Amino acid sequence: MKKHLTTIILSAVIVVLAAVLVGILIFLKNQPVQQRATEPLVDIKAYEPDSSKWGLNFPNQYDSLKKTKTNKEDTQFGGSSGFSWLERDPRQVILFGGYGFSKEYNDDRGHEWSLEDVNNTKRVNEKTPGTCYACKSSNNPGIWNTIGLEAFSKMPFAELGKQINEPIGCANCHEAGTMKLTVNNPAVIAGFEAQGIDWTEFSRQEMRTVVCANCHVEYYMAGESKVLTVPWEDGTDIESILGYYENIGFKDWEYPEAGTATLKAQHPEYEFFSAGSTHYEAGVACADCHMPYVRDGAAKYSMHDIHSPLLNPELACGACHTDVEYVISRVNEIQGQVSDTKIAAEDAIIDAITAIKAANAISPNDGALLDQARAFHRKAQYLWDFVSAENSTGFHNPEYALKLLAEATNYARQAQMLAAQSVGNPALLTTGVYYQPPE
Amino acid sequence: MKKHLTTIILSAVIVVLAAVLVGILIFLKNQPVQQRATEPLVDIKAYEPDSSKWGLNFPNQYDSLKKTKTNKEDTQFGGSSGFSWLERDPRQVILFGGYGFSKEYNDDRGHEWSLEDVNNTKRVNEKTPGTCYACKSSNNPGIWNTIGLEAFSKMPFAELGKQINEPIGCANCHEAGTMKLTVNNPAVIAGFEAQGIDWTEFSRQEMRTVVCANCHVEYYMAGESKVLTVPWEDGTDIESILGYYENIGFKDWEYPEAGTATLKAQHPEYEFFSAGSTHYEAGVACADCHMPYVRDGAAKYSMHDIHSPLLNPELACGACHTDVEYVISRVNEIQGQVSDTKIAAEDAIIDAITAIKAANAISPNDGALLDQARAFHRKAQYLWDFVSAENSTGFHNPEYALKLLAEATNYARQAQMLAAQSVGNPALLTTGVYYQPPE
Question: Distances from the Cα of B321 to the Cαs of A280, A282, A337, B317, B392, in angstroms?
């Protein structure tokens, strides 16, 4: 009997020990893995522009940020090499005729290149305002906090440049100390406020999209001071943005010999992605695809080497999609469809420009018709550019991209017809295919 | 010691019994649930047209097939009520001007209505060939097997009608006896053969799409005998189909006063869905969404009450998608985008028709330009109709739908311009919005 009792007690002890061990292992496995600083934590002062200081506390994030300097890989339609759009698609030389983008228009490179690339662009001259530094440096949040956006914007580029020595970095998205994601671009804060939105009420997951909107948004330079402004007063959808520009009578430049008050879309990733795209509606954030989580030993961190998810699809797409090969084939299919449709829109807009220039050269019988042609050219060009300047070849919102391109083509063709009508000359109706890429 | 042994033996027996029981339950749970006939199995003769006889063996499938007679529910853009397209979108009266579809064009109703609806359509007259019964009856497979497709096609509609008394039913998709899914439409078999495809090599899952292609395909009536023919010789993509029609110089009708050799797309669901759509590429079959599995007690069967998945999304979409409410919102968003873009294409095509008719009325200076205008009108109309006649408001392949509609609009506008050029009259360039639906 005593032997029995011993066996039972021993067995019970073993069972309890095993259960506790399993419980502890399960608990540990379900713990979020914390970033482990490899150096003692240092204090980061507010708006610290030097990312290497933040990097002492967050070495993995900082190391991956620095990779945006060396990663130069391209995808089929985009990438990080900084190729020339004007060489790849010479139609754009015509489409941006008379504007800086017809002289140089290079694809964006990684964040670490931002300062060097803006300093070296041929579009900068002595008239360039400080505004053009707005999305290029981690010095900005501190400067905005000190002198405000208007003083920043109207300062000549060269003069402001003396205060700017860092590319995009930690301070552009994070609050020092708390490391909270933050909106610190005063123009974007104002853009949210104009819609009655308090950005501080966004959830953490929403902020993983909204911080990107610190820069990846449509903007223009308002008034004499060239103040950076986002045109969101009536909403962030393209119809609201176009309506806003109509209301304030804004143009980026006048198309030479055509007289069209033309708009240049900037990089409206936030507006385009949030316009009802399937990923956005499903609650996916920019960072989910562009900054996937990776491990360094026991440390789990979000990659700060931001680039096309097509360059690391297992990490970027594989977090949600089980069949990554399939996903890549879908992206390729969709980007091909958008690219084809985009080029057809470009040919149509060039036809419109040609016709409007020709009608403008001979005094039109009906100036109102030619004005209408210009209005349609302006609209067609903006709809097209909203898709073209957006960095995803439509993939951030595929159906929306294709719908906008269909509308752009329709407006461009009608612009061409109106130009011909304005001078009663159907010879203006010839159509062309303006560039055949080498096979 | 004896007591010990008894305990051990008893415990061992309990463990073994419990393990066996668990094993059996797991095995049973993983068995595919078989259809249980509620009547003794009866023999079905080959090509049996009477679905009620097959129904003795498969009562659940038969009962659900019969529901296609009573289900008349609509979705936002389609459904089963059989509404008039000409009333809903009066542009189509113009687009099909001079052709039967401008007199009556009702949305398709359920399979059980097929015979009644074809017999009652106003498009049938004394010249109508037997071909028009080709997708309307379960009598067809037997008749094709007996007299062949050519005799079937060239027989006058009224005469062939005497042999046809059943709507679409079991024999249209199944082989009697084995119940195997089968391609029995000789035109479709020939269409696969022309591409070097042996349909008998399709997998079961592929056949759950391919049987639908017995009817849901583009077709035309070839030659004097009006033989049902699918234009797949060069492939099932729209460019190949258009090329095929060009090569044989085919037209469905000549557009009155315009002289365009016009094509009517039929119901190209198979071609449209299989042209690289995301669901098709992921291996999803038509039946997965349109014939989801349901249970009747212990019996699991595929619903034969085929209709829009939007009417039972929990079953149709929920088998793969966890968030059905989200999925429905996506379908609505996409169908809305396609519908808007489709209507813009329609307005553009009507503008082209108006211009070509006007140019044709006055003898054109340049007949070649007017011919080119007609060629572009033909192409625009077919691209649009390929999306419009396809029963999903683009959802079966959203990006493809939007790309085709962008192309259709572009061709239509160029057709209009060419017509104006052909007579040197820019007054032909006016544009219109041809119908504003009531708010």
Answer: 17, 12, 26, 6, 19
